[in-house]
Design brief:
The structure is a homotrimer. The first copy, chain A, is built from three helices and twelve strands. In chain A, strands 1, 2, 3, 4, 5, 6, 7, 11 and 12 form a nine-stranded mixed beta sheet that branches. Chain A has a three-stranded antiparallel beta sheet with strand order 8-9-10, with helices on one face. In chain A, a hairpin with a 5-residue loop joins strand 1 and strand 2. The model of chain A has no long low-confidence stretch (mean pLDDT 94).
Chain lengths: 231, 231, 231
Amino acid sequence: MRIISADSGAALLNERYEAQYIVAAVSVLVEPPYRIAQKHIAEPIFSKVANSHELIVHELELCQMLLKETKADVVHLDMSFGGALMEELSPIQLSNISSKARGYLLKILPKMRKIAADIKRVYGIEVLAIGKDSVPVRIAELTAGAYAILYAAEKVVKEKQGVLLGMPSKCYARRIENGVVVHSLIPAEHDIVGFAADTDEILAKVTSSELLNPCARGFRALEITPKVEPV
Amino acid sequence: MRIISADSGAALLNERYEAQYIVAAVSVLVEPPYRIAQKHIAEPIFSKVANSHELIVHELELCQMLLKETKADVVHLDMSFGGALMEELSPIQLSNISSKARGYLLKILPKMRKIAADIKRVYGIEVLAIGKDSVPVRIAELTAGAYAILYAAEKVVKEKQGVLLGMPSKCYARRIENGVVVHSLIPAEHDIVGFAADTDEILAKVTSSELLNPCARGFRALEITPKVEPV
Amino acid sequence: MRIISADSGAALLNERYEAQYIVAAVSVLVEPPYRIAQKHIAEPIFSKVANSHELIVHELELCQMLLKETKADVVHLDMSFGGALMEELSPIQLSNISSKARGYLLKILPKMRKIAADIKRVYGIEVLAIGKDSVPVRIAELTAGAYAILYAAEKVVKEKQGVLLGMPSKCYARRIENGVVVHSLIPAEHDIVGFAADTDEILAKVTSSELLNPCARGFRALEITPKVEPV
């Protein structure tokens, strides 16, 4: 199966380790053995966490954009409704979730169903609200984490000021020669990774050090600061 | 403590990675330090997933068979009722579970209580509905996974056609000289394994490659195909 | 952030692997990158598990004691109420928990709020009921586990009789030259540890072997016995 998925992730944290801005959104194409994105589209978004419930619409649009470039058999969205068809998701199926979350979802549901219907019409494939059960969603999350490091580094270089970047759940970043790899630390996901190519060699201009988010177990953070040039 | 436990597991998947047939059932005897089965009985079952709620009765019968061969202090069943005595489990205690699951359980409960009472009478030991809290249940699950690889390989050789075998939750298989070891990938279970001896050297006749089940995070699958003989 | 936290943990088990006595209580000071305690106070307690709901009061007192020695920005308590301020925690916020647990909490709540108010008045910092979300709480738990090994070994030497020590959730102990390190086995916590210095060289007088608690997945136990001297 060729699966297209999307996610947005990694967040700039304030000094109390609270998420303020979501940094990156990506869509990915994943093929067997489902360990890394084969193709992807990545975007810096720096979107306020308070508005993050609307990001799912943009994630679906990114899936649509990727479908213009490549074929796929199904789309996996980061919404956890047991793999229900997005196109057929009705307000009744939302009755199990909190009223606040339901309010947000009802607002975006018409738009989501419209895009899912478009994808079905044009490409003949389904959009599933599968969320936490999907490996491609996790790969999208890790890929977003990898790009977020590049985007945060660009911001640090441009603004000459450090940032604290909260990484996605249970993963860690490793710099390699031509980019950054984000490895899952979840059991049975030891071989799942996200990768972002550092084509502008932005990582050479910053220093980063890893720490644990003390107020959110399982979440790691990177302190990214401008590299001090030797005089 | 000498603990006897049982489980059935690993499933043949269809092309959408959905479980179709449960492949193996085993009962195991586990002793300190509780890391591997000391004795066991294994059976190929290839039972339809739709009927899998009845497998628990057969699992208990396999425990009974193992008790004929070896002594034990207690039986651990893969039913999660906080370690309640199987013999005393009443319909009232099932009130917390879904009505569908309760329906299935009520159907098998008289038979289960009967076997548990027999075990108590003959061997003087209790049958506990401890399920997910039990390490021996996990060892039974991994042992079933190891045997399922042998049974699936036999099927592949016999039918000259590949299968996709979904492994138990969070584990991976490793071929060793005389068989196959299934290692747990769950935190703090790094030293728990299931083992199946490949006495008929069936594994030499197949090729297998591991992939992730894209629709069920934490589950790995093996694509097992007949080995192509050099001409 | 400099965070003070506390926990009590590790338990003497009976022959059915059931916890009987909580062995150690500690408070810890944790600083970035939040991987180990910088300072701590540790106490052997050997407190009956049946009374363990009252230990949280003593844990907060240990935090208060550590505050006399060192500065901190906040106190993290092992009570999971989403990071609510302890001083403002009201019976209404306890409505989501079981009536038994609520009964215990209502009994200790006045005392807890009193100590939290004292800490606020004297040191100007908040006490948060953050529990399972806190990395420092986990570090306190692992540090308690490390000290529990020393305290249990002392008991074994004094009473010339072995004990079975149940370790905290998902961790394992490793003896090093001058003490014992307890490593977390939870995903994304591979670099979090607790440490206890064996200043009295008590560990040289005992033998220990690790096993899995068969009735509680994720929990390991140590069988600690007096070292048999060569004649």
